[in-house]
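Q: What does the predicted 3D structure of Peptidyl-tRNA hydrolase look like?
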Amino acid sequence: MSQTVIRLVVGLGNPGAEYVDTRHNAGFWWVDALAHDLKCELRPETKFHGQAGKARSGDGEVWLLQPMTYMNRSGHAVAAIARFYKILPEEILVVHDELDLLPGESKLKQGGSHAGHNGLRDIQAMLGSPNFWRLRIGIGHPRTLGLNQPVADFVLHRPRQPEQPQIDDAIARTLNAWKWLSQGDFAKATMTINTKPKSKPTTADKSA
C-alpha cells in the first residue's frame, strides 16, 4: 500500500486588494511563502477557479492553489482541481486562519468539523468528505484579545501590532514542516507545527 503524501496545498482567503492584508487571508500568506520556497509561480487557472501552480517537491509533484471564489465558495475550486487530477481528500492540505488559536500558535489535524469556518464548510460539502488535512494558523479571537468587535468584522481587518509579527513567525515555523508533509510523515509534521512558540522576553525580563 502506497504512503499518503500531500499532493494539493490550498490556502484560504479572499481575492481583491482590500483583503490582501486581512486576518482571513492567512492561508493565502502561507501558500505565497511555500510557492516562494518551491520556486512555484501561481497563475490564474479558470477551470480551477483560482490561482494555481505545480512544483517539484521531494520525489514528486504538488499543486498549490488559492481559490479566487471568495471564502464561502472555496470548495468549488478545491473540488475542481481534486477531481481533475484524482487527488483524494487525504492528500489535501488546507491552510486557514483560526480564531481559537492565539497569534503565533498553529495546529495540524486531519478531519473533524468545520467549526463554523465558511471556507472549510464549503470544501467539506464539495468534496463530500471531512478527511482532508488542516493547518490552522492562529489569529486570535476578539474576545480573547480584549476587543469589542464582531467576529465577521475582526477577520476582515488587518492584525494589530504585535500580532502581525507573531503570525509571520508561525508561518515561517510551520513552513519547516513541509519536508515532512511532502514525505507523508505526518507525525513529525504535527510535532513541528503543534509545538507552541517560546514567548519572547519583554524589556522588563531583559533588564531583570
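A (community wiki): The C-alpha cells above were generated from the sequence. Residues 201-208 have pLDDT under 50 and may be disordered. The chain has eight helices and seven strands.
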